[in-house]
Design goal:
2 copies of one chain form a homodimer. Chain A is mostly helical. Chain A has a single domain, classed as Tetracycline Repressor, domain 2 (Orthogonal Bundle), CATH 1.10.357. Helices cover about 60% and strands about 0% of the residues of chain A. In chain A, helix 2 packs across helix 3, helix 5 packs antiparallel against helix 8 and helix 5 packs antiparallel against helix 10. Chains A and B meet through helix 7, helix 8, helix 9 and helix 10 of A and helix 7, helix 8, helix 9 and helix 10 of B. Chain A binds a DNA duplex through helix 3.
DNA sequence: TTGCAATCGATAGTATTACTATCGTTATTA
DNA sequence: TAATAACGATAGTAATACTATCGATTGCAA
């Protein structure tokens, strides 16, 4: 048996949280507390209390909570890129491949346990990403953060998907815009279904899961745009 | 000559900012300061200083800065709904109508001075909406805020556009999802062009304005999805 | 014109946030 | 055995996000 691990560069932290028990606890419990409180209410002090450590110790690993969110987001996008590669590399037909990618992006299908992450509850992390990941870049310091390479996880994932789009229809003029739009929509539509249901047909009252409904909608949109 | 005015209900404030000079100043200067500092750095104290008033006075009008953002957002969506009605009511062909609506939503075309707002710099307000409006609902209190009717401005606008979509293609299964997706994309794509250019073909290096390029992309997407 | 209410500035005060810094103990490693 | 790293404990600071009170001005109504 094996486990995978996502390794992030040193720009993402002050001290690598994967290098110690405390660090791993900060990440795994941080996801849970962040999910419960939301980014605005979340503080390092509250996280520290929940793991019976101290504020100062958490600050040894991350400069501030925004950087912590960037770390978690990149961790998630890197994992997703790996899952997509693992699950779709064998599809030769680009159309089928893209359809599956979209289903994975939406979490419309299960993935094998081998792709689980040690210590990290991936569905909680996904929940955090849905609600908070936009805040990584909806920020006054986007340009500075971007210049340090902290968005490469997301950009790399989008690029790879855009390449598949371009394979299907090389003349389509907006592969990257289309991909970034559906990436955002993949969590927005589920969020809307849960909180502002009048904004979407994705709905709790239907037989399929919200994630599957979102994937159906996005696949419909993408396939009609192409070729 | 005439000016229009957007009137919001009393759930949006503690004291109606349109009822006094100070209130109007809070709104008009608030937009500017918010645009400059970004939501996280923005405080009522800084706003108060910039209009030579006091923190306590600002708090007399708005409970907190999040409510202030909700006020501004609703103000903007209400204005936009009015502009759309004014500028597109004469189109009988639903397709042409939708195309124009999308151009207006993206700010891809000018509007007559008659639709200007007194005391409010609409392009600055638009800039604030682009960067910050998602934070109105990406929030732990979405459900509470929604239950007080504070998102009706946005929901109403989306509904009206979705109706036009349904007119064009009554069998299309996702009119509301499509509209909410492109509403979000209309500011995201411009934001990406400015800060994360690898995520979109909308680009500063092209002859058309970013807003026009975004409108072209969204019109392409919508028209291929329908019928 | 007296008086009342509303408005606002001025000031003060509190709890929490977002950190930074230092110190001492314990565990690890060389 | 000695050095070092990791961490908990504690303290402290500036800013934030408020709430509360007081007094001066202004307009309007009896």
């Amino acid at each position: 048996m094996s486990t995978i691990s996502i390794v992030l560069g040193e720009n993402f932290f002050k001290k690598d949280p994967q290098s110690s028990d405390l660090g791993r606890k900060i990440v795994s419990k941080g996801i849970i507390v962040l999910d419960e409180l939301g980014f605005e209410e979340f503080t390092f002090k509250k996280l520290a209390e929940s793991i019976e450590s101290t504020e100062a110790s958490v600050y040894r690993y991350f400069k501030n909570k925004h950087k912590f969110l960037v770390y978690l987001s990149t961790y998630y996008w890197s994992w997703l890129e790996y899952v997509i590669a693992f699950e779709t590399h064998h599809f030769s037909d680009a159309k089928v491949k893209l359809e599956n990618i979209i289903r994975i992006v939406c979490h419309a299908q299960d993935f094998p346990d081998a792709l689980d992450l040690p210590e990290v509850d991936i569905s909680k992390l996904r929940s955090v990403i849905d609600k908070e990941s936009d805040k990584t870049y909806l920020n006054r310091n986007v340009d500075e953060i971007n210049s340090k390479g902290l968005f490469t996880g997301y950009k790399s994932l989008c690029s790879k998907i855009a390449e598949v789009v371009a394979q299907i229809d090389p003349k389509y003029p907006y592969p990257r815009a289309l991909v970034s739009m559906i990436m955002e929509a993949s969590h927005q539509q589920v969020f809307f279904a849960q909180h502002l249901p009048s904004l979407t047909e994705v709905s709790k009252g239907k037989p399929k899961r919200l994630e599957e409904q979102a994937a159906d909608f996005l696949n419909h949109t993408v396939m009609h745009s192409l070729k």
